[in-house]
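<instruction>
Derive structure tokens from the sequence
<data>
Labelled lines for chain and fold:
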Amino acid sequence: MNRQLTILFAAFEAILVAAIGVAIPLVPLTLLWGIQYGLAVDWTVFWRAAVDIWLLGHGADITLMLDPTSAALLGLPGAAAPITVTIAALGFALLTALLGIRAGRRVAETGHRLLGLIVSLTTFGIVSFGLAFSALNDFARPSLVQGTLLPAAVFAVGVLIGFRSTQLLRAQASTTPVRDWLGDRTLTTRTVLTTAVRGGAAAAAGVLLLAAVVTAGAIAFSYARIISLYEALHSEVLGGVAVTLGEIAFLPNAVVWTASWLIGPGFSLGTGSTVSPLATQLGPVPGVPLLGALPQGQLALGFLGLLVPVVVGFLVGAILGPRARRDLERRELVLVALGIALVGGIILGMLAWLSGGAAGPGRLVDVGPNPWLVGGWAAFELFVSSLIGLFASLRGIAAGRRG
């Protein structure tokens, strides 16, 4: 592929990723404009709303100013003042990252890989700026800097992952910069670092996987309550579809909040509210159907949720223990457990931070988990449980040798 085709191809890949992301909210909003509003409203209102949703999904702040009528209908203190929404619908960021991985792999297969990579990242940054600029309005104003940089950063992470993985497969490389750096360390240091990173990432993934299962179960068991909330909205078919798409975009947030619940600190849906394994204390919450899956009152067996990170940490330690034992002494396994705890706690704490923020006026400025508590509790639970798992695996090895 010659240079000009590489430039066009890389630019097209970047534009396509942004177009898909914006089209997801834009299509139902356009149908709403045509069918329910009969083309009577200016379509640019729906365009700006779709772009705002996409930008918000990547973490860009949106400052809203409600008109007096809407503020009065909302009935929340401070609704008439400017509202800065900072909570990110992580489904859009996840989609951008996944499409970015695909784009990075395709760019890596061109004849001018580095040029294609630069063009792809630059194009996406320009498109992000253009989208953010087009959405500027007195009633809904996205941060132009965040709207340019944050979507581009998410896309860049995906592209670089896809680009690098394709390069390694193509060259069948046996070394990477990380491996080269580790190659200069002692055997003990290499084993501690690699085991800690693998274990911490596996522990965080395990907690999130079980959190996704619990979230799906909560939605299934609360189906009747969720349907009643849909009926209370009186949103008709198109409005219901738009609400459902918005809820799907927030599903990754819900999974992270469930993980925070399983770890122990739980999360909040407004200042002064608490949703944790031991009790749920809520004030007025928005009538979002997905929130019908929230636990009600005190759960008799809610404390059993705390076993999830403990069991995951124990299994990670038990699985990695035999391999680590070949190169490490018993006292060095404490460092491995500490590393697993730090890596897992940082990952889960970062996700908790990304999943929360301000969702509206008044008490809704505080929504989501506390990242410091989530990261700290996760690190403590993973340290203790993985350490027990590591030493339990050693006992299993010793028993096998005696047998």
